[in-house]
Amino acid sequence: MTLQQAELEETDVAHDEELPAAIRAIRTRRSGHNFDPDAELDDETLEALIRDAALAPSSYNLQPWEFVAVQDDDRIDEIVDLAYGQEHIREAGTAILVVGHTEAETADRVFDEWEDAGRMDEETADQTKAQTVEMYDDDQMGRDLGIRNASLAAENLLLSAHARGLKATPMIGFDQAGISELVGLPENKIPVMLISVGPSGGEEPERLPRRDVAEILHRESY
Ligand SMILES: Cc1cc2nc3c(=O)[nH]c(=O)nc-3n(C[C@H](O)[C@H](O)[C@H](O)COP(=O)(O)O)c2cc1C
Question: Considering the entire predicted model, what is its pTM?
């Protein structure tokens, strides 16, 4: 059996109760456009999604991310326009903008936490903080770090939504400057991903094929 065949079979049994729930969630998560326009995301679930997103790993645990949840009908209309008419955002009823930091603005607090927990001595914490701040000071690197870290939080949010029986779709098909202005993002924060999220309105079309493991896995060197 090739890896691809094995993988397909695994996908077929993705709902198998014997699989760990996290693996089932990974294998059955979908991006979708079929939301229930009459159902809403409640506050408690919204906060649970953000809590799960915030459990994503981040470099030195800086957690350089924030989230802007938009649910107001007029503002959702504006977001649909800025997302080139993606109607599923209106049907979902909630759009969450995952925001990345381009500066190490949590560094003071986070490196104190490393030190207070006894995981770094004072000298190491000070040195590592200085290096981290310097790394973020490079414009390109600051953006890269913001995007890398916040993207992991975005994926956590997608999986959490899916595991809770919701539908969530990640998007970068939107006017970045326009969305940043709409939600009032400061200059040093970037819109990393927009996620439409809400109760499902039904099935999605079958998933498009994934590239074969043999095609994407390189062993020892590229
Ligand atoms: C960075 C990124 C940008 C995306 N942008 C959009 C988008 O603007 N609109 C949309 O409907 N889906 C968007 N998607 C969803 C992809 O189309 C989807 O993940 C892909 O087709 C695979 O399908 P699946 O997520 O159901 O497995 C985006 C996904 C990613 C990761």
Answer: 0.94
Distance (Å) of CA 181 to CA 47, 64, 150, 178, 202: 24, 20, 19, 5, 33
Domain assignment present for residue 99? The answer is: yes
9 inside domain: no
Kindly state the DSSP code that residue 31 receives in the 8-state scheme. Answer: -
Contacts for 127 with CB less than 8 Å, ≥ 6 apart:
none
Check pocket membership of 27 for ligand 1, CB cut-off 6 A.
Answer: no
**Residues spanned by the domain of 209:** 33-216
- Which residue CA neighbors atom 25 of ligand 1 most closely? 31
Q: Please, which pLDDT band fits residue 11 given cuts at 50, 70 and 90? A: low
Report pLDDT digits (tens) over 105-136. Answer: 999 999 999 999 999 999 999 999 999 999 99
